[in-house]
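[step 3/7] inverse_fold.run input=structure_tokens len=137
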């Protein structure tokens, strides 16, 4: 497939309400989900499309509890950008394997490591993130 830069380009939009943002997130998820076999063939990955789909779902699940529409719009824009760059082959194999498919997460820290840092970030979420903690629901 030839690389046409404008082939997947979308203009930046602002969601007027949470329902519209939700529809846009679902559409982005469907685009990523449907392109998993193409990603595997474009980059000659030695993983199955099912594994790519699993990793994509994991990235979307990380932001499941974001409720602020402005934050959702930024995440959608970043997701669209990643999608366009991935399908236009503007990334190297290391980007795909290291960023897209690598499991994300902070390394586990012991109590003493947290104590030495002087804070417990796992117990407190900053209000500016727009994330509602699932236990608070």
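[step 3/7] decode complete -> sequence:
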């Amino acid at each position: 497939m030839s690389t046409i830069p404008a082939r997947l380009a979308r203009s930046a939009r602002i969601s007027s309400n949470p329902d519209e943002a939700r529809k846009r997130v679902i559409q982005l998820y469907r685009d990523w989900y449907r392109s998993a076999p193409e990603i595997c063939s474009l980059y000659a990955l030695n993983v199955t499309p099912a594994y790519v789909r699993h990793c994509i779902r994991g990235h979307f699940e990380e932001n499941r509890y974001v409720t602020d529409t402005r934050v959702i719009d930024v995440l959608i824009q970043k997701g669209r950008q990643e999608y366009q760059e991935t399908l236009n082959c503007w990334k190297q194999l290391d980007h795909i394997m290291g960023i897209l498919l690598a499991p994300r997460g902070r390394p586990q820290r012991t109590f003493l490591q947290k104590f030495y840092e002087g804070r417990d970030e796992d117990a407190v979420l900053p209000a500016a993130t727009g994330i509602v903690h699932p236990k608070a629901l």
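[step 4/7] annotate
The chain has a mean pLDDT of 82.
The chain has six helices and no strands.
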